[in-house]
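Re-run with default settings, no changes from the original entry. Doing this only to confirm the output is reproducible before filing.
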Amino acid sequence: MMKSSLRRLAAVAVLGLCPLVAAAAGAAASAQEQLKAFVSTVQAATGSFTQTTSGAPGAKPKTQSGDFAFQRPGKFNWRVKLPYEQRIVADGQQVYQYDPDLAQVTVRKVDQAIGTSPAAILFGSGNLEQAFQVSPLPARDGLQWLRAKPRSADAGFSQVDIGMKDNQPVRIELLDAFGQTTRVELSNLQPNPSLPANEFQFTPPAGTDVVKM
């Protein structure tokens, strides 16, 4: 049961949070101004993440860690390494969620999988205010914060808070419809790196069960 829950959390991290990577803006800029600069100037990035989900009644917090890469618009490679391996890859057209232990990959169209989630902000090229109601939050933990609430009623989460420091998104905190909070800490952020041509390609290994949604 725990392993199954952790697999689902990996998908939440990418499709619900998907919080990745560095920005460029003035040191005195607000969190919203820095995030806008990030969306407009950072076309690709790599980094590491640690994700913790808590709040479910009677459940212990669950933690995952791994690394990622992304390239606008709509391409990303999210690799969970601990405690169980999993990959979520988007090639700009489709999203592949691969579970090696189950030998199964689930395939969705990018617009179906990302939609109006925070991934649309960080991986896409759309206008922030079109899909979200954005408001500033008080500074805390040494970070500048903003809150984005989806305009769509079926987004699957209530709000996402994004903490910025030194012109980089550092922490993402997402509150889902079940009252659970997922926090993603970002590190080793490298904006606009040179990425391999096959970074966002995925071919299911032989014997893998392919499920199309």
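Residues 114 and 120 are 6 Å apart (CA to CA). Residues 17-28 have pLDDT under 50 and may be disordered.
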